[in-house]
Design goal:
Elements lengths: L1 H9 L4 H19 L2 E4 L1 H16 L11 E5 L26 H8 L3 E6 L11 E2 L3 E2 L15 H8 L5 E3 L6 H7 L7
Parallel strand pairs: 2-3, 2-6
Antiparallel strand pairs: 1-3, 4-5
Helix pairs in contact: 2-3
InterPro entries: Amidase, Amidase_dom, AS_sf
Protein name: Amidase
Family: Belongs to the amidase family.
Length: about 180
């Protein structure tokens, strides 16, 4: 993220181009991983375009402006389904963002999509009856851990530089160990 910020500031990279690379990489590699369960290409490209204009004008909203991220599916993103990996919520589309998502949007973060996790976040691996199992980017036959396995896998696979997950009982910590990644 630090490198993207520096490249945006110097004009070497543009948030629109970066987001397009994210979507290209997801299209190429995620069919084997199943980490991103909902994409938001139209909105992401619009947010990236607005971010590019702010960077060009020298007025980014924050250090995160234009940074692409994925969001774990249990966090509410207004207008995007939040299914919790459960048939009980299969048609749930919240109208408003949860507080952390709202803060990310205000900072200019580009939300690329939502990531897979076990039903109701109840397991230490990433699989559910609606979206299936998420594979580990180093070996798709192995688990990425969980319950934030989809979020961590989306970063480890190079789809996005950062993802938002949750950690109520080791959900990020278990998943990040599978990749040697950092979890905050």
């Amino acid at each position: 993220m630090v490198e993207l910020h520096a490249d945006y500031r110097a004009g070497r990279l543009d948030p629109v181009d970066v987001v397009n690379v994210c979507f290209d990489r997801i299209a190429e590699l995620d069919p084997a991983l199943n980490s991103v369960v909902t994409l938001d290409a139209q909105s992401a490209r619009a947010v990236a375009t607005a971010s590019a204009a702010r960077w060009k004008a020298g007025a980014p909203r924050s250090a995160l402006d234009g940074i692409p991220m994925t969001i774990k599916d249990n966090l509410l993103v207004g207008g995007l389904r939040a299914i919790w990996g459960s048939v009980a919520y299969a048609d749930h589309v919240p109208e408003q963002d949860e507080i952390p998502v709202d803060r990310l949007r205000r900072a200019g973060v580009v939300i690329v999509g939502k990531t897979n996790f076990p039903e109701l976040t109840l397991e230490g691996y990433t699989s559910n009856c609606l979206f299936g199992t998420t594979g580990n980017p180093w070996n798709p036959a192995l688990t990425p851990g969980g319950s934030s396995g989809g979020a961590v896998a989306s970063v480890a696979a190079g789809f996005v530089p950062a993802a938002i997950g949750t950690d109520g009982g080791g959900s990020i910590r278990r998943a990040r160990v599978a990749y040697g990644a950092r979890g905050v």
